[in-house]
């Protein structure tokens, strides 16, 4: 498999009033094409910081991040982000929200009709065609996140970055969206990095689960390979030995090795 | 609660068939009642449905009507004690005569009340328009650039509390004429809320939206048209609403000082003629116009407000 993203000795510290705060240190990670990687850890451990570094929304204070052979110097549409709070623009319809990204990426080479077809295809992929002309305020939280995913996929990014994409949703909606995402990833073969704090979500969706130690100065504690055939089905997995093993390994890491200090 | 219990008993004693067609009047009424009684009310027989909205309308109108009655009552008592103040009846008759011909013109010092209101509104519109043309772009720049904000904040803080009328002599000096000087005071009083609210709106554009812009790598033009402008618009409209409010307050005072045609000058003129009933009419008219301006802008603002949590 070809390596897509290399993270080399990356560290991140923030200047605060009380002096320098080290959020991340010595992060080394390689993400291959077509791979789905989860970042898991207790809250405040710098998962989102690491994702923002890959997105280019923040730049590291140490080390370097490389995507497709080039150093990441800022955000760009080849690294699409699905935000936790969907971040759809409320004054645009769902269609226009997705179109905004499509136009930016393909507008130079393709005509309006083609751009519209792409937008519609992405919206259909997440089964939201019926709500294309609605504004985000008129649809539910789960539907908004579907549109957020469609917007990211429509740009055909090299890598898709998801920051707790289903964190704000109720359990049933979350399961439905996870299944949706499994389908979309299967279809597109996308490379995905996903921040999560949900153990089942991590095992169900990823090829590898990267576990971060507690902050401050968090780093990679363990990396777990999930050897489960794809596409995965949550019903048949429930009693699968490998699934249980992975789940147990993550829980052991989170609740035994990295016990959360009383917050 | 009485409405709900009423419909409950009506329903149990006289269960209407579900297939009965509902009149349009009933459906609008159902939207106004709370969820629980709605389903019951939907199958109610027709006659009671008209009584209920009328009753509700009466209950809604009663307090304001009583309030106005009280005001007029106090006014009537005061006018009986003090011969200088005309009674409500005298004012009413004066108003009827005045509004029967609002657009007459007998030279610059004797024009109908309609002309006076319109020329005041015209001054407000011009001064306000210039203030918007200068204040909104300035507010955008102050919101966008920290340096400008740091440079201009002390100046704005110093000048904002100054009564715009203090600027009137400067206007007279520069423009050499009363009319543009009055417009000038409107410009001065309108510009501060416009600058400050626009700047605040720009500073409060949610970081999420700006992150979207960065990830999508939108061009500066798209950032302005698709993200900055729509998210600042509600703040801008608040600024505009505040500006119009103050402008309408200030124009009366400014016109009293500058003269010419206008509602403020008219008030002063009628004072010189000792037509106190006309002054009282003017007070109501000024209030009404201010109210209408405010409502108009609230309606516009409603169209452009987005719930940022949605």
UniProtKB/TrEMBL annotation, chain A:
Keywords: ATP-binding, Cell membrane, Membrane, Nucleotide-binding, Transport. The keyword Membrane applies. It comes from the Bacteria. InterPro entries: AAA+_ATPase, ABC_transporter-like_ATP-bd, ABC_transporter-like_CS, ABC_transporter_ATP-bind, NO3_transporter_ATP-bd-like, P-loop_NTPase. Its main location: membrane. Residues 5-239 form the ABC transporter domain. Belongs to the ABC transporter superfamily. PANTHER family: NITRATE ABC TRANSPORTER ATP-BINDING PROTEIN, TAURINE IMPORT ATP-BINDING PROTEIN-RELATED. This is ABC transporter ATP-binding protein.
Automatic annotation (TrEMBL), chain B:
It is a multi-pass membrane protein. It is found in: Cell inner membrane; Cell membrane. Residues 30-39 have a biased composition (Polar residues). InterPro entries: MetI-like, MetI-like_sf, NtrB. The chain crosses the membrane at residues 57-78, 124-143, 155-175, 182-203, 247-267, 279-298. Residues 1-27 have a biased composition (Low complexity). Residues 117-297 form the ABC transmembrane type-1 domain. It comes from the Bacteria. Its main location: membrane. Keywords: Cell inner membrane, Cell membrane, Ion transport, Membrane, Transmembrane, Transmembrane helix, Transport. Residues 1-39 are annotated as: Disordered. Signal peptide: none annotated. PANTHER family: ALKANE SULFONATE ABC TRANSPORTER-RELATED, MEMBRANE SUBUNIT, NITRATE IMPORT PERMEASE PROTEIN NRTB. NCBIfam families: ntrB (TIGR01183). Belongs to the binding-protein-dependent transport system permease family. This is Nitrate ABC transporter permease. It comes from Uliginosibacterium aquaticum.
